[in-house]
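Private note to self, pasted from the team thread so I don't lose it. Backbone tokens:
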């Protein structure tokens, strides 16, 4: 092959590469997105869970909102806790907010010893999939399926499956709400745990007689807790008791009066 042809080909390729590099360099400057250095510093203070518990799309969204002044509360990141809130406040030059202690609680006590089973489910061990088959293997269509979808998404090892239902260790829970979003039955809720609180560990909305057939630990809507509560914090919603945490003082009167044990007192040191 003629050496001149080879040289010409090399020159063409080199010139083309150089032009492409020049164009890319110009484009990177023309279309460059301005970097918010304050937002980046705030982002470094956040744990990176991207759980959305703060109310934003993720850690980047929360950091950007704080940097732009769209939100001033530095204590919205539950996974980051007070440590993250303090670090963010130092960057922004504002007083540090306090992260209120909350934890996820499974509102069900329908373990294998009290919940009746209606079918022998042999499909995929997944709560969402099992729920599609007549509401799940248990008679109570409102109760915990117990295959551990919530446990699988918990990054902090706070959830375990015990005797057929999920249980959460509040000391390990970082309130990221991933389990709340995952539970197909909507059984997991975030409850305030800065002091002792009463929790109705049932979400069955069938009439009392039907509930008793399905699960002996289910709320039967008997109204005894309502009458026993001195602060009027409990009401009955569709045959199931419900606690108003703005009124609850954690006195335990409802817990003592409940004939089926559907109401328990929870704290940051007690797994529920």
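Design output:
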């Amino acid at each position: 092959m003629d050496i001149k042809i080879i040289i010409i080909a090399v020159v063409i390729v080199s010139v083309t590469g150089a032009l492409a590099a020049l164009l890319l360099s110009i484009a990177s400057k023309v279309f460059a997105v301005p970097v918010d250095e304050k937002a980046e510093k705030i982002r470094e203070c956040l744990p990176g869970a991207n759980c959305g518990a703060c109310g934003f799309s993720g850690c980047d969204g929360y950091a950007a909102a704080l940097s732009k002044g769209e939100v001033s509360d530095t204590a919205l990141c539950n996974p980051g806790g007070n440590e993250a809130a303090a670090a963010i406040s130092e960057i922004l030059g504002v007083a540090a907010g306090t992260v209120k202690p909350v934890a996820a609680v499974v509102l069900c006590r329908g373990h294998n010893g009290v919940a009746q089973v209606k079918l022998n489910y042999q499909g995929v061990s997944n709560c969402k999939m099992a729920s599609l088959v007549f509401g799940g293997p248990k008679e109570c269509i409102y109760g915990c399926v117990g295959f551990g979808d919530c446990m699988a998404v918990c990054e902090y090892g706070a959830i375990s499956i015990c005797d057929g239902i999920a249980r959460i260790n509040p000391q390990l829970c970082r309130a990221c709400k991933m389990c709340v979003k995952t539970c197909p039955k909507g059984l997991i809720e975030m409850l305030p745990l800065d002091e002792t609180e009463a929790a109705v560990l049932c979400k069955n909305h069938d009439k009392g007689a039907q509930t008793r057939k399905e699960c002996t630990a289910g709320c039967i809507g008997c109204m005894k807790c309502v009458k026993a509560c001195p602060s009027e914090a409990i009401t009955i919603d569709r045959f199931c008791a419900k606690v108003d945490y703005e009124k609850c003082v954690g006195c335990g009167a409802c817990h003592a009066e409940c004939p089926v044990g559907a109401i328990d007192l929870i704290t940051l040191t007690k797994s529920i």
